[in-house]
Amino acid sequence: MRVYEVFLKRDGKEEFRHAGSLEAADDDLALLLARETYARRAEGDQLWLVDRAHVVEAEPGFTAPNTDKPHRHNSGALVAEHRKAARQAGS
Amino acid sequence: MTLSAAAGETLLAFADDEHLMGQQHTEWIGVAPFLEEDLAFSSIAQDELGHAASLYSLLGDPDALAYRPPVEYRSCHLVELPAPDWADALVRHWLYDLAEPRRWAALQGSSVVEVAALVARAEREETYHRRHAGALLTRMRDSSSADRIGAALDALLPFADALWEPVAGEADAVAEGVVTASSAELRTAWRSDVEAVVGPVAWDTFTSPDQQARSRRSDHFAALHARISEVIALDPTATW
Fold first, then answer.
1. Which residues in B158-175 are b (16+ Cβ under 10 Å) and which e?
2. What's the CATH number where B91 sits?
C-alpha cells in the first residue's frame, strides 16, 4: 500500500489546501477513494493527490534558525510612523 | 402527471431495483473491508436511494411507494439476495452498475419529460459507481481473491441477467416512448459489456430465477422487507 496526501481546491481564487491522507494500492484507487473520503460534502472542486514518496522533506531543525532573527520580522510600522511625522512637520 | 399503467409499472420496476440495491449496500456501513471503502460504498448506497426517491416521486408519495406491501413490488431477484460476503456485494455492485448506464440511457429521450430530466444527474453519479466497481473488481480478479470473485460471478450472473426480465406492460411502454429501448435490446448491450471484462459467458446454460415478469418475490424478500420497514413500522409518521 502507498500513502497519498490529499489536496482540495474550491473554484475561484482559493489555493489548494491539504485535506488529509489515505492509503491505497495505486493512483486510480486512491483517486476513487479520496473522492468520497474527503470531497463527498462538496469540500472541493479540484482534487490533487501526491504520493508521499514524492514529497521532498527537510530534516528536523532545517528551518528553525529563522525564529531568533527579529530584524526579519519588520512590520513596517516604525517606518510608517517616521514618514507620517515627516509629512506633518513639512505641512 | 398522468402515466399509463404500462409506464407506471416500467418506472416502478427501476425505482424498486434502485431502492433495494441502495438498501442492500447500506448494510455494509461500518463493516466494509476498510474505512475509505466504507465511505465510498455508503455514498453509492445513498446515491441509489436518491435515484429511487426521485423515480418514486414521479409516481406518487415516495415513502408510501417505497414501503408498500410485498406483492406490489416489481424488483428483480438480484437486488433481493443477501450478500453477507464482500465478494458477493462487490460483484453484484459491478454487475448492477454496469446495467445502469444502459437503463438510464433508455430514459434519456423518454416521452415522460420529468423522467428524462433525471438522467443527467443520475448518470454523473453512476459514472463514479461504475468506475469504483470496475477498479475494485479488476484488481480483485488479479489478486489472491480471484477464486472468491469467480465463485461470486458464477452465482450472481444468472440473477444479473434476469434483471432484464421486463414487467408485463413493457411493450406498451416502449410503444409510448416512455423507454426508448426494450429490455431485450439493453440486455444484449449489457452482456457485451460484461464479456468485455470477464470473457465469454455461457448465457444459454443459466437457470433463470422464477420472477414471473417481476411480479413474484424471491424467498429472501420477506426478511429484507421486514428489515427496511423497521422504522416506518415503529413510527408511520417518521420523516427523514
1. bbbbbbbbbbebbeebbe
2. 1.20.1260.10
